[in-house]
Amino acid sequence: LWRFCKHKVVTLWFKTSFFISSFMEERRYTLNKSERLCSKKLIDRLFAGGNKSFPTFPLRVVYMPITPDENTADVSILISVPKKRFKHAVKRNQVKRQVREAYRRHKYILIDALKQKETPAKMILAFIWLDSKIHPLEEVECKVKKLLQHIAEDKR
């Protein structure tokens, strides 16, 4: 009896969730390989000069709009933690993980702003760590969110 009831509940849940998800756009809070900036040409163009940057301590973001045919993702990111700030790779990797996690949680602030424009646009970003100490995840997340909101307002 339990299996039968459980099966009915699961079937009902599946039909309901399928119905709801078919009408609503599903947001995936992931960070795929296509969302990571790996192209040497694009990285060189990003840091060549003439692109906008904005600091929010302990981060600085450098960003550049690109044509839609250049990259597959709407927004691609690069995270840089200088060896000058952290000598040990373990600490550099920890900071990179914090920034990646904060971006992953709040990336739709920027993606939604880019999709609202009448002409489709894509963007590449570079997050550069400025401080020589590790900050709590909550603080890093707040700063990344602030940077993304600033870029989104600038692109409107």
Write structural notes for this entry.
The protein has 156 residues and is an alpha+beta fold. 48% of the residues lie in helices and 17% in strands. It contains 5 helices and 4 strands, in the order H-H-E-E-E-H-H-E-H. It has a 4-stranded mixed β-sheet, sandwiched between helices. Strand 1 and strand 2 (59-66) form a beta hairpin. Helix 3 (89-106) crosses helix 5 (137-154). It is globular. It starts with a helix and ends with a helix.
What descriptive keywords fit this protein?
5 helices; four-stranded mixed β-sheet; 156 residues; disordered N terminus; alpha+beta; 48% helix
The count of β-strands is 4
The largest sheet, given as strand count, sense and whether it forms a barrel, is: 4 strands, mixed
CA radius of gyration: 19 Å
Q: What amount of the residues lies in strands?
A: 15-25%
Overall average residue pLDDT: 84
Helix-strand category: alpha+beta
**Ends distance:** 57 Å
Question: Residue share in helices?
Answer: 40-55%
Helix and strand string, N-terminal first?
HHEEEHHEH
Oligomer: single chain
Parts with pLDDT < 50 across at least 5 consecutive residues: 1-24
Strand order across the largest sheet? 1-2-4-3
User: Which shape, going by the Cα principal axes?
Assistant: globular
Count, helices? 5
